[in-house]
Write a structure and sequence with these properties.
By secondary structure, the chain is of the alpha+beta class. It is built from four helices and five strands, in the order βαββαββαα.
Length: about 130
């Protein structure tokens, strides 16, 4: 199955630790969404925003990996699954159930996300916009 990562799961080391079968395929953009950070965990989330994009990593994951991600993402309480199509293929990602106000991420979490941006060769401008709550 295809999985779209946009937060700490972009970090290849962390993703491999969580999902041993995962394979990074390539970077892609999710259109009409923007990146933000929220909840008591100050974690990454996506929300609808016309003409905006969220860069991320496309991974191939196994059913076992999906079950592990479900636990990690506290599905279905904290995150719910969101599906979209990329060149005719179904892709799964997570989006927060409760759209609470913006909360700046912790330094530790942000460093994991920044490393993921480097691992996936993503442009930092979208991360910077999210951190400025734009």
């Amino acid at each position: 199955m295809l999985y779209f990562a946009y937060g700490s799961n972009l970090n290849h080391f962390q993703m491999k630790r969580r999902c041993k079968d995962s394979v990074f395929l390539k970077k892609i953009n999710l259109k009409n969404f923007r990146l933000t950070f929220r909840s008591k965990y100050r974690a990454a989330d996506i929300e609808y925003k016309k003409n905006s994009i969220v860069p991320g990593g496309l991974f191939e994951i196994s059913k076992t990996d999906e079950k592990k991600l479900d636990v990690y993402e506290d599905f279905p309480k904290l995150y719910k699954k969101y599906y979209f199509h990329y060149y005719g293929k179904k892709v799964m990602t997570y989006t927060m159930v409760n759209k609470s106000p913006f909360k700046f991420p912790t330094e530790r979490y942000l460093n994991v996300v920044k490393r993921g941006y480097r691992d996936c060769k993503l442009k930092n401008q979208y991360l910077k916009k999210a951190l400025n709550n734009q």
